[in-house]
């Protein structure tokens, strides 16, 4: 893969525990982040805690609760094995070997793998769009200003393409901007505009990127198309929510009506 930030999110530099003098703030922040992400899917587990880089009594108890939920020794300490259990969702998403034949099907398959691991952002130091999932998709960047829908979409394409020994940058530049990708699509005659899409839906295929258009040369949200059915597309997209926001909190599977929204499509055909 080209986008390898996720590897840094899967490790800590050493064991962490309450009052351990060798604790590093960056490691503790990772631990606290994963404790809170676990709470997103298991809210009754009691792993929600502050994300401040201080391994205090609250973090220790949250770790014990996590260990209990996972059937581990309830030590309150985090070594590499415990951290691997905490960060297992990210490992499952990024290191999964796809089996679908063909690049388009592999893109869809891998997108579902990320969806199944509950990829959510966190609010850290009053900054939304933060946490290990966002940093993995955004090459280490995080914070309120870092909308991560394109980072997610390109990560999935990168992961799928790399399994076929292909470099997604031959198709589009590595970017976090919908505008950059759309303009590259126009330049390479790969952007299917909304009118053309409506006139001939067969032009659009699973694995392509949809781009919500606000005005001329202004696209504001993207995601991966997994199916085209009648007037709708099925999608898996990041940085959205149940309302279809362009700045939501996670990866969601959605349906969108391309006749009621201005949706252009970037075709990945040259990479296939």
Can you describe what's shown?
It is elongated, with a radius of gyration of 20 Å. Helix content is 35%, strand content 18%. The chain has two domains: 5-91, Muramoyl-pentapeptide Carboxypeptidase, domain 1, CATH 1.10.101; 100-271, Alpha-Beta Complex (endopeptidase fold (from Nostoc punctiforme)), CATH 3.90.1720. The longest helix is centred in the N-terminal third of the chain and has 17 residues, at 25-41. Helix 4 (88-94) packs antiparallel against helix 5 (103-116) and helix 5 packs across helix 7. It contains nine helices and eight strands.
Q: Tell me the fraction of residues in β-strands, as a range.
A: 15-25%
Taking all Cα atoms into account, the compactness measure Rg is 20 Å
Q: In the CATH hierarchy, what is the class of the largest domain?
A: Alpha Beta
Mean pLDDT: 97
CATH T-level topology of the largest domain? endopeptidase fold (from Nostoc punctiforme)
Taking the alpha carbons of the first and last residues, their distance comes to 17 Å
- Range of helix content: 25-40%
Descriptive terms for the model:
single chain, 272 residues, alpha+beta, Muramoyl-pentapeptide Carboxypeptidase, domain 1, endopeptidase fold (from Nostoc punctiforme), 2 domains, 6-stranded antiparallel beta sheet, two-stranded antiparallel sheet, 9 helices, 18% strand, elongated
